[in-house]
Design brief:
- The chain is globular and about 40 Å long.
- The strands form two sheets. Strands 2-1-5-6 form a four-stranded parallel sheet.
- By secondary structure, the protein is of the alpha/beta class.
- The N and C termini lie far apart (36 Å).
- The chain has one domain: Uracil-DNA Glycosylase, subunit E, CATH 3.40.470.
- A hairpin with a 2-residue loop joins β3 and β4.
- It is built from nine helices and six strands; from the N terminus they run αβαααβββαβααβαα.
- This is Uracil-DNA glycosylase-like domain-containing protein.
- It comes from Saccharobesus litoralis.
- Pfam families: UDG.
Length: 211
C-alpha cells in the first residue's frame, strides 16, 4: 500500500470528523472475537503532525483507557525523545492496527483484528492533513503501510530509504520488553536510527508547540 493521504472534500469540516470519531467509539465490529467489551483506544487530532501506527492496545492501556499507558509506552516515548505531555498532545496521533485489546496468547498479545484497519484507517487518516511523519511499530503496521515490507529487522535497517517521501516513514520494532533481545542484537538501532529519528521529531514538533 502507498502512504499517499487522500483527503475528502470536507476535510475542514470538524463536525464530520467528530461524527466519525463517535462512530469509532461505538464500533462493535469485532466484539465476538474480543476477550473484553469493545473499547477503541485511539488518539487523533486534525492538527497532528506525527502519526504512530502500532499493534493494538495492551491490557493496561485498556484498563486506563489511554494508548501506550505501560512499559512499552515508556520505551516508545524515550525512543521518540518526547515527554509524556508532548506524547499525549494534539501534535501526536496514535492509530493502532487494532483499536481494542485483542487478548493474549502464550507468546504475547494476539494479532490485531484486520477489520479495524480495513474499516477505519483510510477514513480517519484522511482527516489528518498535517501529518509529516509516520512511525510504524512492528510487522502488522509495516505490512500495511510499506510498499515493500520484508521483516521488522530489514524494514528498520532500510529506514533511510523512506525519508525522502511525504510523510516520512520510520519503521521500528515494537517497543515491548519482549524485544529486548532484538535490541541487544541490533546495536545500530540505538546508535544510528534513534538519534536520526529524535532529531527529525525535534524539528517537526518544536517545544514551543507544547507550551
Amino acid at each position: 500500500m502507498t502512504t499517499t493521504i487522500e483527503q475528502p472534500s470536507d476535510v475542514q469540516d470538524n463536525s464530520r470528523f467528530e461524527q466519525l470519531l463517535k462512530q469509532v467509539a461505538q464500533c462493535q465490529i469485532c466484539q465476538s472475537s474480543l476477550p473484553l467489551a469493545p473499547k477503541p483506544i485511539i488518539q487523533l487530532s486534525t492538527q497532528a503532525k506525527l502519526l504512530i501506527i502500532g499493534h493494538a492496545p495492551g491490557r493496561q492501556a485498556h484498563n486506563m483507557d489511554k494508548p501506550f499507558a505501560d512499559k512499552s509506552g515508556e520505551r516508545l516515548r524515550s525512543w521518540l525523545g518526547l515527554t509524556e505531555q508532548q506524547f499525549y498532545s494534539e501534535q501526536v496521533a496514535i492509530l493502532p492496527m487494532g483499536f481494542c485489546y485483542p487478548g493474549k496468547t502464550k507468546n504475547g498479545d494476539k494479532a490485531p483484528d484486520k477489520r479495524c484497519y480495513a474499516t477505519w484507517h483510510q477514513q480517519l487518516i484522511a482527516y489528518l492533513p498535517h501529518i509529516q511523519a509516520m512511525v510504524l511499530l512492528g510487522q502488522h503496521a509495516q505490512s500495511a503501510y510499506l510498499q515493500r515490507s520484508i521483516n521488522v529487522t530489514e524494514n528498520a535497517k532500510g529506514w533511510q530509504t523512506h525519508q525522502q517521501q511525504m510523510p516520512a516513514i520510520w519503521p521500528l520494532p515494537h517497543p515491548s520488553p519482549r524485544n529486548n533481545i532484538w535490541l541487544s542484537k541490533n546495536p545500530w538501532f540505538s546508535q544510528e536510527l534513534l538519534p536520526a529519528l529524535q532529531n527529525h521529531i525535534r524539528l517537526l514538533l518544536p517545544s514551543a508547540k507544547f507550551e
